């Protein structure tokens, strides 16, 4: 058994039980974004969180241990994602990549937006012309320092 | 002359004149995100916008015409960006890609978040532990339809 | 079990039972194009559609549930398809890609043809010099907007 | 000088003169799809057609000769196109590739749709919910033969 | 079971029984080139041919059905083949590719040699300095047409 | 100046002068296949041959020297050729690669068909259903030896 | 002119003048590691630093401005470096990558070592069996946080 | 069974038993860096070391033998690692690669830092602004020699 | 069962029995280089050789048959080998590739060194500064011929 | 000017003057293998050697300085070389890679053959069946050490 097996167990259990990610997150008292990423094998759970997930998805003990091990991250099977929904995010990076760079450097100087000290929130934005996906991201700015 | 040449002219002029993207955007009365993307060769300008940019960056007439031609989009030289700032966005897609997919489908059903009917806003978020980059994205949800 | 397993079950059942895609589509009262794509793991079925397919292909209950889960899309094993029939479509994009772009922008301005709000129809076109494959595609034009 | 240089000359002249592809095609009495592809370096012109284009775009004599030489085809700079409009066509092949294959084989048996004995037509389809891009493709079916 | 499994069954049976491709082809009354390609998963057999192969290789009924399904073609595990014999053919395309193109266009104009309406014959050519592999290929010329 | 420059000079001169490869070959008293490959930068000419080509294409002296230097071979800009004519040959290797291997090993044992001690001949094959491209290849079989 | 041009100017001037990186760094009063990276186009200089470098390398004014613009980072022409010295570092990441991961997570929990809030020092380590390259790296640990 | 299977056995046993790499290393009396790399399939153990590991992880006899066989090295599933922690090291090579090269050649002349006659040490560096990962590397300099 | 399975059987048996390649080769009365390559799935054995290997490694009858079938050659899992020992050979080709080409053409004219009519010998070269790996290669020169 | 420019200057001068690598090497009193590699941009020359080469090839002073700068090594334009002569060496690594590994480890234990402390010699081996290319390589064995 490895962490990928645990991810597959969780997805299978979710399909069989008809659970929603939002409900899984509520059970842990955390955001749906972080909990979903964790269940999909991208984050590390504390022992208490892992036990709760084990109960919810009826996982064996070994799986509960694996949830506490830092996973090898990266959730996509190919560098350029073939899935249309995920590709649109890839496209945003491709089209707006140099714009992100230009504007962040203009505001903050040389450095990056952290993808580690990072949080995000994804909600529905009602719109008469068709509802919209609304995403808020917040990442700490980390400056390059001279030495 | 092609659109890439015009992008290079704009970047050179910006370095020489010490302009800021925010000021360029203000001159056009539009967001700094869209205007920067356009100046970096990713969007198409109207004749009036193109003329204004031509004055601002002292571009030749032919360049002003090129700004009104729809460009071949994609701003990055390699599939996996080597620049650390842009890579962090690539990493977010890699780590959170399946999470975006799971949560959007849970909320909206099968479909995508449009990267075309899309807007975004990038600001500084003050934080005593170190300021943060704050990004808001809004893209129309487009459902797959059966036929 | 995952969605790929369900796709393989459907293909195996189709070979064993000698079914035709056209008949499968008729059973659901939908186009053969959309139904085939769905059976090959690219679209999401409603509960009623999934139950009908489950009966037709004698699928287990879990498989019927998987048909209602949005799949990770992309039907090809390699970026450049090795199969000659599919490659011809890849070649059309390679040869006519810039032509599609030039003509759609000339007619509609900057934007794209949606691959989501999209339908297509594939028929036989009788021709004395040899019958032809006739394909009609219709995708909503989505304009880029300034903001 | 080579054919790529001629393509760039044509695009530059078109931008400077503000010509439309449709008008260029009308001048030759042919479809806008084939003429545009040819001007973008994908098709071969007859001597008469080349002379007409030379006049229209004010090309030097050597360029007129190059238009009559069969070009090395393929109009895109990367295997997976970064341009959003062209990518949508790539995505259609990725998502519907196995569907094209299944339905054409079901109707015609083993073989391919020719991308050489091929024609297409791209038009605007009026729609109250937003106009659509309408594309009709017709390619001769070529059967594999046993020998 | 899928077509790849059937190909492996055939290869295993061939090794166990010590059959020769030439004899397999003779049993079907067809060329060894086409029959070998079909047994290696690249061509589609008629019901009668499939039954004969089923008897010869002692295949189960389901395998016999799979032989009649059009396969996803492409016989090599990597784009550049590592096997030295197959690589030499890849090298011929690499070294002589532009020569094939130049000479076929000189003789026939713009178009291609069909790889579908195609036959070939591979024989031993006796030579006192060492026997040679002699290959004859014949593919229909398909012209590009203006429209 | 390098060999690629010489290849471009030859192609430009050929377009300007309207020469045919067949005539170029006749001038050297050799096959059109080998001479075309050489002019396209894939073979090495003797001093006498180089001088003849220099006269024919009006090349400078330095170019005549370069024609006698062994070139870095490989005539295609990408691993998978985008040009439809050349791709068909790539496809033949992809589809028939394992067939070539199986049949040559069946006839000759372990070894390869040489792509060096190799000759080929490309002709028009008249056919009432449409003329065909006829190619004959002959390569020495080279056996692997035990040691 | 762009930043790459400035990097090439600096390297050419360094070769012509016979300067050493250590001396360049001393002139700026900073480490040789950071200054070399900056001169090679990977870091951003302050106006004072840029002026000093401009004097040292006799750069034109525009180049001095470019040194103050945040560069598009990434110093290598290929993903897997062909240069043997640089490849050894790539090999260390390949062989020890999972070891870095295991040990940092064991000591710190889930998170990363920053490559931005980072410094390093490269010195000669005398050794009777042959001197050694001694490298010290120090990067801030950044923990993933739950949210 | 192969060496990869043994690596998976070790990782599974470590998760189940809750062992720490540091303790495993202490049992062998060696550094945690080398022992972890070895357990992750990158180094070769002596018979005594292998027996100790076999006891610690309760490995079968065949696994203990495999630990003494030189493994096929390389610990990462993709050329560019998707895991954020490991990617940061890849980024250091990308950003500082030419700097490593410049400074080592300046100090030592032409040659490389050995990745074989190499040792490293990874520790926690306390820092009031947040603890840091401290890594010391030492590799023998190997000069290219003329001959 | 296929040839890869046989290779794995041989390697497993070798580890279990503690055999040396040199002894395996001696049993067949052939060089250790050719026999090792054959056991690793790169060469074809005669019936007598296959039977001897079957006895030595206690292989099943079917495996003995597979050893006599020409394998699909290529022993490495990635194009650029990650294993440091094998990479050094890849590096030699990368660094010295154009040197091999220049010197062989200078001595022999246009052609290649055969990798088929090839033998090699790998021995220990005692050296007081550290023993050396000594490799002798001999491949027949094959000239390109004009035709 | 950069090192690549110097390499091109040397090759052009060699073609114009009709020099042989062997003679160039003799002028420096070194092996033809090392000197050719150096002239092709892979090795670093001492000031005396660089001056001699400058005289021989009539290089400008700046080029003579560049010959003394350690180059960015790697002589091939693509990872898999398209040139048939160089490809044969690539093929040897592909086919014999695991054999090199197995035999060197059997003789020396875990470690590598150095590609830095390395020398080679390439000669003609007369053979009545056709002369052969004879290559002798000698690289120091470098053992991995435990620490």
Automatic annotation (TrEMBL), chains A, B, C, D, E, F, G, H, I, J:
<dbReference type="InterPro" id="IPR003712">
    <property type="entry name" value="Cyanate_lyase_C"/>
</dbReference>
<comment type="function">
    <text>Catalyzes the reaction of cyanate with bicarbonate to produce ammonia and carbon dioxide.</text>
</comment>
<dbReference type="Pfam" id="PF21291">
    <property type="entry name" value="CYNS_N"/>
</dbReference>
<dbReference type="InterPro" id="IPR048564">
    <property type="entry name" value="CYNS_N"/>
</dbReference>
<dbReference type="InterPro" id="IPR008076">
    <property type="entry name" value="Cyanase"/>
</dbReference>
<feature type="active site">
    <location>
        <position position="88"/>
    </location>
</feature>
<dbReference type="GO" id="GO:0008824">
    <property type="term" value="F:cyanate hydratase activity"/>
</dbReference>
<dbReference type="InterPro" id="IPR010982">
    <property type="entry name" value="Lambda_DNA-bd_dom_sf"/>
</dbReference>
<dbReference type="GO" id="GO:0003677">
    <property type="term" value="F:DNA binding"/>
</dbReference>
<feature type="active site">
    <location>
        <position position="91"/>
    </location>
</feature>
<comment type="similarity">
    <text>Belongs to the cyanase family.</text>
</comment>
<feature type="domain" description="Cyanate lyase C-terminal">
    <location>
        <begin position="75"/>
        <end position="147"/>
    </location>
</feature>
<feature type="active site">
    <location>
        <position position="114"/>
    </location>
</feature>
<dbReference type="Pfam" id="PF02560">
    <property type="entry name" value="Cyanate_lyase"/>
</dbReference>
<dbReference type="InterPro" id="IPR036581">
    <property type="entry name" value="Cyanate_lyase_C_sf"/>
</dbReference>
<protein>
    <recommendedName>
        <fullName>Cyanate hydratase</fullName>
        <ecNumber>4.2.1.104</ecNumber>
    </recommendedName>
</protein>
<keyword id="KW-0456">Lyase</keyword>
């Amino acid at each position: 058994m490895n962490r990928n097996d645990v991810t597959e167990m969780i997805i299978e259990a979710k399909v069989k039980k008809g659970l929603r990610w939002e409900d899984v997150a509520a059970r842990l008292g955390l955001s749906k974004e972080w909990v979903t990423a964790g269940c999909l094998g991208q984050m590390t759970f504390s022992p208490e969180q892992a036990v709760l997930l084990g109960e919810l998805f009826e996982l064996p003990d070994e799986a509960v241990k694996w949830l506490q091990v830092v996973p090898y991250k990266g959730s996509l099977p190919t560098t350029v994602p073939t899935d249309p929904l995920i590709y649109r995010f890839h496209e945003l990076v491709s089209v707006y990549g140099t714009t992100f760079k230009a504007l962040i450097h203009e505001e903050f100087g040389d450095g990056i937006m952290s993808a580690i000290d990072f949080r995000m929130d994804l909600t529905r934005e009602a719109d008469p012309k068709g509802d919209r996906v609304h995403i808020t991201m917040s990442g700490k700015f980390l400056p390059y320092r001279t030495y």
